[in-house]
Specification:
The chain is α/β, with parallel strands linked by helices. 39% of the residues lie in helices and 15% in strands. The strands form three sheets. Strands 1-7-6-2-3 form a five-stranded parallel β-sheet, covered by helices on one side. Strands 10-9-8-11-12 form a five-stranded parallel β-sheet.
Length: 331
């Protein structure tokens, strides 16, 4: 394995092999496995779990890491091709990224969506341009339309809680005061479909996931024996659910239009999930969220603090899942 950019790049069997390695590294640590190896971490956007879990995981495997946050102690990086660099950015990715990669054995890049060009973000054009500059092993730590590290950890979490392969998995839109990126919902619907689950995307009108995202998930479901559909009907979507994965994202009907997005979500404050949402779900239905989450905005306190929520275990699983990826890339 040379790159970890998208779960779709791997077979189901290869993903399951990664999860076996993750569980093994939890039980039997290998503190010398990556001794002398260096992990570079480039964060174009903020992070808590991704940053901490990668540094902790690399340290537990005996390696070292460095973190670059452009504009904070380093030059601001320009990402646009053909840009006239007379603004705040002093360095272009075409020079900066190959230099950073030359200092390490594997480079992780986190670069969110700009929230303007839906077609470009579904195609992941900015991340693809950066990836093309790197010869060393590369990890996608979240791009405009993907977050494979989160999805690998989520798959591990589902396995730990003995959620059946073909269980009903609901990805539910949740309220937020502003538009958030599509990376996690896109990666999540694909992960659940690839696992073989009955996937339902529950969202208000106007917040449908892009057709390319849904088509990719349906192709994964066809190979795994799962299914994928969308619904705006809570009762229909949540009936018999084994897992509800809450996530916020933007108004795709007018992507990038802040005024229309604000008008669309103004009447949707009742999409803050509460225990009442789970009345028709299975008794053991679990609540997932990638974090960070705004309490009593997206999810009610009682739900997050109750027995359904497994969000902290999801967050923990980022570390062993990423340790498995690092082990496969470098050991």
């Amino acid at each position: 394995m040379r790159r970890f950019l998208d779960l779709a790049d791997f077979s189901r069997e290869q993903i399951e092999e990664l999860l076996v390695i993750a569980r093994r590294l939890e039980r039997v640590p290998e503190p010398d496995a990556l001794r002398g190896k260096v992990l570079g971490l480039l964060f174009m956007n903020p992070s808590l779990r991704t940053l901490a879990s990668f540094q902790a995981g690399m340290a537990r495997l005996g390696g070292a890491s460095f973190v670059i946050t452009p504009g904070s102690g380093t030059w601001q990086l320009e990402t646009r091709l053909g840009a006239v660099m007379d603004g705040v950015a002093a360095e272009h990715i075409r020079e900066g990224l190959p230099v950073l990669a030359s200092y390490c054995d594997v480079l992780g890049i986190r670069a969110f969506a700009d929230g303007k060009d839906l077609a470009g973000e579904v195609a992941d054009t900015k991340f693809a341009a950066m990836a093309a500059l790197i010869e060393q092993p590369l990890i996608n730590m979240e791009s405009a339309i993907n977050h494979p590290c989160q999805s690998l950890a989520d798959w591990k979490t589902l396995d730990e809680f003995n959620v059946p392969q073909h269980a009903k998995f609901v990805l539910s839109w949740a309220w937020h005061p502003r538009a958030l990126p599509l990376a996690v919902p896109a990666a999540t619907v694909h992960m659940a479909a690839m696992r073989g689950m009955e996937v339902v995307v529950l969202r208000p009108e106007g917040f449908a996931l892009p057709a390319a995202v849904m088509d990719k998930a349906r192709a994964a479901a066809a190979s795994s024996g799962g299914s994928v559909r969308e619904s705006a009907d809570r009762g229909d979507a949540l009936a018999g659910a084994h897992v509800v994965y809450a996530k916020e994202w933007g108004y795709t009907a007018a992507y990038g239009d802040e005024a229309q997005d604000a008008r669309a979500r103004a009447s949707l404050r009742d999409w803050c999930l509460t225990e009442d949402w789970f009345a028709a779900a299975t008794g053991e239905c679990r609540l997932m969220h990638c974090l960070p989450v705004r309490r009593n905005v997206a999810l009610a306190d009682a739900l997050l603090d109750g027995p359904r929520a497994i969000v902290r275990r999801q967050a923990y699983n980022r570390m062993p899942a990423q340790m498995a990826v690092l082990h496969q890339l470098l050991a």
